[in-house]
Design brief:
79% of the residues lie in helices and 0% in strands. The protein is an all-alpha fold and 328 residues long. It has one domain.
Length: 328
């Protein structure tokens, strides 16, 4: 019963948190604006964004295969890529479950030991965290006045319109902090603390060792930079979807992008809620109206979530074909 309750909480709490924050942000929003904006949406830039989404997943799959090679593990490129598609789609349902699902896929289809593939993810996350920190530092330095204005406005002054929305800012921030704390608590409680620390150190050492022994470390670095370039482009190019955001600068896109990268740390499906809050808040500071900012955030997040879900379904279908061909 306790196990079922924990699983239920891990599934429902992120969904409820994301839904509640979205409700607070869009309570008085006129959703007819969404349809009007969709009719004006530039499909060329939407297609370009979709290509960068797919490309980022493909490169991540190839990078993971490169990280596994020093351990003597050589999954097929296609299976490695499909596992990435599935992991991102799985995160839409239960945040953070994607890392486990991609390891399961490799174990099931290419006999890659689960524990070893999981160990390489420590290296991936470490490297990606460093990239996010560097990008955030650069973005904040280049847009320091705007960053300061954001810090001053959120929860202190009125970034949207009226006291109510100032309260929304505080509610989003407080709930996000609580959600992260609850997630960490559940992870730690799942096993004895010393066992967890020892396991983490083992995986961390193994992951770093795989990077040190990598024959093509330069390629790993290039692929890492390519992944984050694709992430940045899939956000920045969305500005050109609509006339009301097409005038925003690349540096504005960079600052908003790093803010969303931090926002998705909050355990909600695909960062829903905190992601919207970050984008809407910054866009208003850059001169976009509250309605247009809310419209942009809703459409961009929704369409990209649908794309990620479709890629996951596609990967599942293709893996079933592989399983059938292997039997024959």
């Amino acid at each position: 019963m306790k196990k079922i309750l924990n699983k239920t909480l891990k599934t429902l709490l992120p969904l409820l948190l994301g839904a509640f924050i979205l409700y607070m942000l869009y309570e008085d929003f006129d959703f007819t604006q969404i349809w009007s904006a969709l009719k004006e949406m530039d499909m060329f830039w939407f297609t370009a964004t979709t290509i960068f989404i797919i490309l980022s997943h493909v490169i991540r799959g190839l990078r993971w295969k490169l990280a596994l090679a020093p351990l003597g593990l050589h999954p097929r490129s296609s299976v490695s890529i499909y596992s990435i598609f599935i992991s991102y789609a799985a995160n839409l349902v239960v945040p953070r479950v994607g890392e486990v699902s991609r390891c399961v896929v490799l174990e099931q289809y290419d006999k890659v030991p689960f524990a070893q593939s999981l160990g390489t993810l420590v290296t991936e996350r470490l490297i990606d965290t460093i990239v996010v920190i560097v990008m955030t530092t650069v973005a904040v330095m280049l847009q320091w006045p705007m960053f300061l204005e954001f810090v001053n406005e959120v929860g202190l002054k009125n970034p949207l319109d009226g006291f109510k929305n100032s309260a929304v800012a505080w509610i989003v921030i407080i709930l996000s902090v609580i959600a992260i704390a609850v997630m960490l608590f559940l992870l730690i409680r799942k096993m004895a603390i010393w066992k967890k620390i020892r396991s983490f150190i083992t995986r961390f050492s193994e992951g770093l060792l795989s990077l040190r022994k990598m024959k093509h470390g330069w390629l790993f670095v290039i692929e890492t930079l390519a992944i984050w370039f694709c992430y940045l482009m899939q956000f920045y190019l969305c500005f050109f979807y609509f006339p009301f955001t097409s005038g925003l600068s690349f540096l504005a896109g960079l600052l908003m992008f790093v803010s969303t990268s931090v926002a998705v740390v909050v355990p909600t499906p695909n960062g829903a809620g905190p992601w919207h809050f970050a984008v809407i808040s910054f866009m208003i500071l850059y001169g976009v109206s509250s309605t247009d900012a809310s419209t942009f955030a809703f459409i961009v997040h929704s369409t990209q979530t649908i794309i990620v879900a479709l890629l996951g379904i596609y990967a599942l279908i293709m893996l079933q074909f592989k399983k059938s061909s292997n039997k024959n």
